Amino acid sequence: MCIDQMWIISTHATRVTANVSSVYPKDVEVKRSGVEDMTRLAYLHEPGVLRNLKSRYGMNEIYTYTGNILIAVNPFQRLPHLYNDHMMEMYKGAEFGELSPHPFAMADRAYRLMMNYGISQAILVSGESGAGKTESTKMLMQYLAFMGGKVESGGRSVQQQVLESNPVLEAFGNAKTVRNNNSSRFGKFVELQFDQNGKISGAAIRTYLLERSRVCQISDPERNYHCFYMLCAAPPEDRERYKLGDASLFHYLNQSNCIKLDGMDDSSEYIATRRAMDIVGISSDEQDAIFRVVAAILHLGNVEFSEGSEADSSVPKDDKSQFHLRTAAELFMCDEKSLEESLCKRVMVTRGESIVRNLDSRAAALSRDALARIVYSRLFDWLVNKINTTIGQDPTSKLLIGVLDIYGFESFKTNSFEQFCINLTNEKLQQHFNQHVFKMEQEEYTKEEIDWSYIQFVDNQDILDLIEKKPGGIIALLDETCMLRNSNHEIFAEKLYQKFKDNPHFSRPKFSRSDFTIHHYAGNVTYQTDLFLDKNIDYAVNEHQDLLHASTCPFVSSLFPPSEESTKSSKSTKFTSIGSSFKQQLQGLLETLSGTEPHYMRCIKPNNVLKPAIFENSNVLQQLRCGGVLEAIRISCLGYPTRRTFEEFVDRFSVLRPEVLGLRYDEVTATNMLLEKVNLTGYQIGKTKVFLRAGQMAELDARRTEVLSYSASKIQRKVRSFLARRNFIQLRMSSVQLQAMCRGQIARHYYEDLRRKAASLKIQTYYRMHFARKNYKDLYSASTTIQSALRGMAARNEFHFRQQTKAAVTIQSCCRSDLASSRYMGLKKAAITTQCAWRGRLARRELRKLKMAAKESGALQAAKNKLEKQVEELTWRLQLEKRMRTDMEEAKTQENKKLQQQLQELQFQSKETKDILRREQENAKTALEKAALVPEIQVDTTHVDKLTAENENLKTLVVSLETKIDETEQKFEEMKKAREELLKKATDAESKINGLTNTMLSFQEKLTNMEAENQLLRQQALLHSRLKTISENTSPKSNSTNGSPLHVEQMTPHGTPRAPKDYGNFAHPRESVDALINCVTENIGFSEGKPVAAITIYKCLVHWKIFETEKTSVFDRLIQIFGSAMQNHDSNEDLAYWLSNSSTLLIILQKSLKAVGSAGTTPHKRPQSQSSFLGRMVFRTSNITVDMDLVRQIEAKYPAFLFKQQLTAFVEGLYGMIRDNVKKELSALLLHAIQGSSSLRGRSFSNQGSYWLAIVDNLNELLNILRENCVPAIFIRKIFTQIFSFINAQLFNSLLVRHECCSFSNGEYVKQGLAQLEVWCGEVKPEYAGSALHELRHIRQAVGFLVIFKKFRISYDEIVNDLCPVLSVQQLYKICTQYWDDKYNTESVSEEVYLGLARL
């Protein structure tokens, strides 16, 4: 092998020989997913760019930056996760380049520049046919409409209206080409107009460069515009109306062999186009006129001409041509003879007269084609103007963002006039692109304040002069040739060869007589001039203008308004060049773009088979060249193609000079030191970046690799030395340890013998001492125990005797007093019970009589009066009985006091008796002792007998007292039982009295209701009679009867008449209603866990009979209170208070109200089933209980059920406001938390933990507010469940979108935050937390996967089935590709796992 050659092993394991000079260096440290901005590549060359795009395309990363240029590779599949509302929220306000490349980022940048600097913006979307330009345009408009945020009439946004117009424009402006079955043959510039506030105020669609020549000439295998084929495949009635047949029968369509397209049904497309016309506001009459014009063009193309009888004249060739001519005239609604003359003759105007000149057959055919082209062009312009009128424009708007969707560079085997015009457009746009890219490069250098010189870039002005220079350009020569009689394409080609034979950008192909080649910026294109002249001619014939303006069809007439020439009666034929018109429109487009700040988006088609996962290198490389991307990279390479921030540069090349990593040097100094170390020249140091010339990055990498290799060998040498020394030290330490163990064992044996001898002596000494001490302690303990037992027994005997004596006295006194009191209370309670029972029996008997008499209103009134008297009498008796009971209690208290005094006296007497007895015993004992000392003294037996008798009397008295005490205690127990029975009977009697009172009140309420209904019926009867009188007299002044004005019933917001002021006895006063409203408007707190306001409202409404009436305004005033409470939607305390009141009141109404079931009442609407949020969450649960003593079953009217429905809506609204407030507070904290984790890489989490603590504090604060306001637990549980679901969605989406978040340290940080949330759920009661923690399953499994060490050891089944069963394969693939270990620098999952995920 030569020195200049080298072997290369390709990805397909094939070996290729290549020249060293043609081999480019490779960046071995680039990530698997490539780089998001290709200007950050270490080596900017075509293979590096192509490899980066292919790597990203293989991972479905279809968007890549090249500086400010966005490259979009068509995936040929739907990726809905890239274009949802959450993605738009993520890119809203984000800096350009902060997030992954996306059309939303480019649209957001254009919107921000427009709003901040007041400069209109333009986004140029280009690419070849099938590259996805239309879809990219839709995404851009979707984001701009999201930022504008204004809804137009009909409920559709401006962006939606623009998109709805696409089917119409595609039907009339798209056609099949060689590379795409639905190629746009016109340029579309969509202007979105904004007001000063950034809201969309209007929009307009500007079309450029419509390929008019396609109407008359098409090449094989292309097709004409879709609308012609759709109309030929229309339903039979439409084809019969327009006299159409198969598409292959028409000259304008059968020039190509391609009539039908695979996968496209023209009949279905016709119906869809009709529907789209209805949507954009085109009426059925206008639609009929449009398709009539299209059919006329088809018939016009089938008119053939032959030589006439006169010289140089022409006539329709045969009957078939005459039929098509007549049909075209009928469809145009003009005169057939006039149409034929306008095609076959011309009027020449001289100074004094007009001369009619005949046209030969060729000129007549050209006149026919000119008429077809001008009619189709006017029709397309009318459609665009109609769509703009429907969308609506803002003429006062000074800010706009335009989106340009235009065809790209084309180079086929056969290139005609259409490709010539399209490539001219791309040359113009490429010049604009080059100038803008060069300007951005200069702005980058100026921003970084570096020294730079002028950079040469390829300017294609010479090619533009070759094509459009006037005079002498190709277009000028083409127009000149077209204006000459009997000229052809060979004459035109010969003029080109003579004119541009020395031009370096023009050449003549070999073996060709009429072709020519232009050296475009994207490559050489050879054009065939065969049809150049025919496709360029566009005669503006005044006869055609006048003929169609005089049409009886208003639509056709409006397409051709009178011109200035026709008003001056100037009858002449004016030549119009399609090429010149094309050039003028192109110039207008460039002027529009020059007034805006441009942004570029290049769409790439990865393959020609239009299938996903196929990346053709040569095809993509050609498109990159045609799109100017490689030219932009080349411009960058001419200056300083490699640029790195100081941090990145120092981090990569610090191995060249390790001392720069110290704290003494800043980043700029460290960068200079590294560059001086390698002796580089020509670089530049900016403010934030270092700029390197081409090839310097490769030199730095070579030096870095050299240093790393030397360091590796040095490390190996040190490691080997360390291992040898460690082995020697281990051997020496082992020998020393062995010797020490042997010597130690000998010494330990000797020491053990000495220790045993000393221990045996000490044991003997202590044993003898212990035995002697034990004997002494046993003797001492035995003697002490015997003495204490004897003394204790004597003391206990004495104590028991005294205790028994005292207890006997106490029991006797209490028993006697209680027996006396119980006997009295028993008699009294029995009397009261008997009286109550008898009175209750009489009351029940009277109640039965009242029920029988309650059927008549008079009897009810009498019963009412009688019951009132009975209630008064019963009330008086109850008070009397209460007073008697109080007197009995007082008497009982006094009797108890007397008995207690007697008991105390008896106890005192017993005590004195005991004292006397004790003194006597002491005296007797003293006398006995004295008698023992003096035995010879004579004893006075009389005194002894007397004392003995007194002693016996005292003992008898004590026994009698004890008997009395026992009897007293028995009486006390009996009186206590009798008193309890009397109290029980009195309580029963009182409850019966209350029941009778309630029964009387219910009768009174029924009587009042009947009176009110009678009064209402009388008023209604009186009202009908007055109305009848008014209708009979027809007098406008007879508005009163007997001097009383006629009150016409007014309707309430509930749909019922307002109640009259007088409703009888049950009408609630206005003062009471005002007092209720004033009371519940304020926060009046809670009582025993229940809201006071809700309970008060319910009791008042029940008391006033509001639920049972059909006319009331109280509900409206209550609804106003709840409505005003919702206005303060920022205060969770107020919202929680009103949520507690409204939900409690709603639950009570749900359990209380029932529909009226009687046949005599007006049927109301049945309450709707609880299918709403409140019905699903509250009324299906059984754990919400209500005090049933408070709830009453009420037969409610329709206003009550309507009030309940409105209350349900308020409960749902209050609940949603609380939830949204909390989500709004948590959104900022979650955003800071996830951003903080990525920005503080390598640092502690102490500062970041405050965000999670703030989240927990917000949750605790919300829980305390809800609990303090007594909100039902089911609401609290549901709120926290939805909040945790929101946290899960926010964190997980940020993890998928942000590459920097998929790191090891970030996973540890998020896991710590989730642990805090789990601790919070454990501390909160389950009735409040519920299953909220389960909602975090996605982010918990994703974070658990991130913090796994050495992921390459995990298999595919373990990840999918064990670690992350909840996550989808797409989500796992996204996480695996974005993961990077910033802590231990370990690899991600293995290649087998990547392949398994990619296959699914």
Automatic annotation (TrEMBL):
Q: What SUPFAM superfamilies does UniProt report for this protein, alphabetically? A: P-loop containing nucleoside triphosphate hydrolases (SSF52540)
* Renumbered residue ranges of the record's region Actin-binding: 586-608
Residues in Myosin motor domain copies: 33-705
Q: Where is this region: Disordered?
A: 1031-1060
A single Pfam family it belongs to is DIL
Q: Domain Dilute, which positions?
A: 1116-1400
Per UniProt, what is one GO molecular function of this protein?
A: microfilament motor activity
* InterPro entries (UniProt xref): Dilute_dom, IQ_motif_EF-hand-BS, Kinesin_motor_dom_sf, Myosin_head_motor_dom-like, MyosinXI_CBD, MYSc_Myo11, P-loop_NTPase
Q: What GO biological process terms does the UniProt entry carry, in alphabetical order?
A: actin filament organization; actin filament-based movement
Keyword annotations for this protein, in alphabetical order, are: Actin-binding, ATP-binding, Calmodulin-binding, Coiled coil, Motor protein, Myosin, Nucleotide-binding, Repeat
Q: Where is the composition biased (Polar residues)?
A: 1031-1044
Entry GO terms, CC? cytoplasm; membrane; myosin complex
Give the residues the record marks as binding ATP.
Answer: 127-134
Q: Which spans of this chain does the record mark as coiled coil?
A: 850-1020
Q: Does the record bear Repeat in its keywords? A: yes
Tell me which Gene3D superfamilies the record gives: 1.10.10.820, 1.20.5.190, 1.20.58.530, 3.30.70.1590, Kinesin motor domain, Myosin VI head, motor domain, U50 subdomain
The family annotation for this protein states:
Belongs to the TRAFAC class myosin-kinesin ATPase superfamily. Myosin family. Plant myosin class XI subfamily.
Q: From the Swiss-Prot or TrEMBL record, give the protein name.
A: Myosin-J heavy chain
* Record lineage: Eukaryota, Viridiplantae, Streptophyta, Embryophyta, Tracheophyta
